[in-house]
Amino acid sequence: MIQCEGTVLLKQANIAFGCGMSSSKARLPVKECPFLLMIIKNATRKTILANKCELAASFFSRLKGLQFRRELPKGTGLLITPCDSIHMFFMRFPIDAIFIDSNNRIVYIEHNIKPWRISRVVKDARSVLELPSGTALSTGSEIGDILEM
Fold first, then answer.
1. How far apart are CA 29 and CA 9, in angstroms?
2. Sign (positive/negative) of CA torsion 7, 30, 13, 40?
3. Would you kindly state where each structural domain of the chain is located, as residue ranges?
4. Is the peptide bond before 29 cis (omega within 30 degrees of 0)?
5. Average pLDDT, the chain
6. CA-CA distance, 112 to 136, in Å (whole number)?
7. Which of 19, 53, 65, 109 fits a disulfide with 4 by CB distance 3.0 to 4.6 angstroms?
8. Do the Cβ atoms of 61 and 32 come closer than 8 Å?
9. Does residue 105 contact residue 146 with C-beta atoms inside 8 Å?
10. Rg (CA), the chain
11. Phi and psi for 59 in degrees, rounded to 5?
């Protein structure tokens, strides 16, 4: 479930938010809530991937991603949507990238991507969850696992 200032709304596999900043359709939000923090769980493994995950859904927030940040603390993450590949330009630290399809199923995992690299394009991916390096391994996350948001 996704919470935003006390309003909760999650439609099927599409991401929609009841924060007054989302589109009227149950599709991707036009703008993200600046105060939205999600909990991302691996439902298959019953583990928490991030307890403070930000959303990047606008063009500029997706382009910026984690650039120019000094670190990505344990327990945090960034969900980029829509997205099927990422770049690590201007990054200062490695990350794990979990590629997710429209059913919240993990379709690809890129472990420990270093700065100044580019991921491959994952054709079935709808979103990418960026996490601190080592998170995918430490939680046992694998391709085929289902995530809850």
1. 12
2. negative
3. 32-148
4. no
5. 81
6. 9
7. 19
8. yes
9. yes
10. 14
11. -55, -50
CA dist 26 and 109 (Å) reads 27
Q: What is the pLDDT of residue 34?
A: 54
* Single-letter amino acid, residue 4: C
Cα separation, 43 vs 56, whole angstroms = 22
pLDDT at 14 over 80: no
Q: Each residue of 61-114: pLDDT tens digit?
A: 888 888 888 899 999 999 999 999 999 999 999 999 999 999 999 999 999 999
Q: How many CB atoms lie within 10 A of CB 91?
A: 21
Distances (CA, A) of 109 to 51, 95, 125: 19, 11, 11
Under the banding of pLDDT at 50, 70 and 90, the label for residue 7 is very low
62's enclosing H/E stretch is: helix 59-64
**Is the pLDDT assigned to residue 55 strictly greater than 60?**
yes
Ordered alpha helix ranges (H), the chain: 59-64, 135-138
Pick the CATH number of 32-148 from 2.60.40.3080, 3.20.20.80, 2.60.120.1140, 3.40.50.2000: 2.60.120.1140
Residue 36 burial (CB count, 10 A): 19
110, 11 contact by CB (below 8 A)? no
